[in-house]
Amino acid sequence: MFRPVYVIDGARTPFLKAKNAPGPFAASDLATVAGRALLARQPFAADELDEVILGCASPSPDEVNIGRVAALRMGCGNAVPGWTVMRNCASGMQALDSAIANIQSGRSQLVLAGGVDALSRAPLLFSDSMVRWLSGWYAAKSLGQRLAALRRFRLGYLAPVIGIVKGLTDPVVGLLMGQTAENLAWRFRITRTEMDAFSVRSHQRLAAAVDAGHFDAELAALIDEKGTPYAADDGLRRDSSLPNLAKLKPFFDKKYGRVTPGNSSQVTDGASWLILASEEAVARHGLSPIGVIRDSQWAGLAPEQMGLGPVHAATPILQRHGLALNDLDAWEINEAFAAQVIGCLRAWQDETYCREQLGLPGALGALDEDRLNVDGGAVALGHPVGASGARIVLHLLHVLRRTGGRRGIASICIGGGQGGAMLVEAL
Predict the structure, then answer these.
(1) pLDDT in tens, 184-216
(2) Do 96 and 293 meet the contact criterion of CB atoms below 8 Å apart?
(3) For the domain 177-214+294-426, what is the CATH code?
(4) Other C-beta atoms lying within 10 Å of the C-beta of residue 256
(5) How far apart are CA 166 and CA 307, in angstroms?
(6) pTM of the entire structure?
């Protein structure tokens, strides 16, 4: 990267767990509230932004270009372009990378970028059989034709297709994301107890961080139309324990599996934004950056092994900068599944995997887990698919500044068999 790209500030909504019903906020509501709170504390006006870029994996039909919708609702004005990107779980990180590219090319100087999803509002869909029947019903002209259509109708046609299940199923290999986590558990001999222990630790670390106020600087409170406030993340289970998690049954492979709802990320609603700026914009507006994004990387791998994406994306960054795993002061690896993060750690320690899949002379080594997800992760906090990539970059910078660290990597696995990673430096 030839031009430095500065992170000026960031904010996110509380992450709200889906509860088998549409949540209180649409995706654009979440993005607008977090963005307004962030922009209100800046020394520049919202209409001085060069563009707004928002990642979203599941926009609603009336908010397809949700980046533009949010930009207008935040008061950026008609002249500020707003657009939407989608790279599944890394949509928020892709928004940041798109902003970086435009800043480095000189096309933009000051960009609001982030991600959002309201997964609780993922739609229920008609089946193909129901759609075909409706097509015939509306094409019927006479009473006889309609009676014939009614005779062809079957109650089974009314069974809904669950949109989020369809969206989280890889169409190439036909596997749910959780089934790809089962693949990693089998490949690296990860036990159910190891997965559950990782999950307990995620909740414990999140509880400690919440009690210490480590998320206070990030959060922008929400208030619904009834006046009910939502000021904190609500996925934390303070009573999480190995005995409690052991009671849960495998979800994705009910007979032989080890991946359960308790050792998987939570289905969640949330939004996260960062303000990125060039050196010229920093000087022009008198800004005080909190960090710099030094490098980014995207990688591809087999879709059925998608959870190892962080390994494939972060390793080239380490090589380019001559860094070992523990030369970084902090790491954020998004916790899509406990098995997935553990699988990444084991892949780096596996001689054969590093040689054959990463082109290394041998194993990269063991990442010090005291540097990894120090305030918990998506198993405890939740994973609003479009927002998580931006959240982990923002939180990593807060961790580095709080602990006196200098450099860190945020990395995420991506449905479809990809990985994304960013190297950041705190200021």
Answers:
(1) 999 999 999 999 999 999 999 999 999 999 999
(2) yes
(3) 3.40.47.10
(4) 8
(5) 18
(6) 0.95
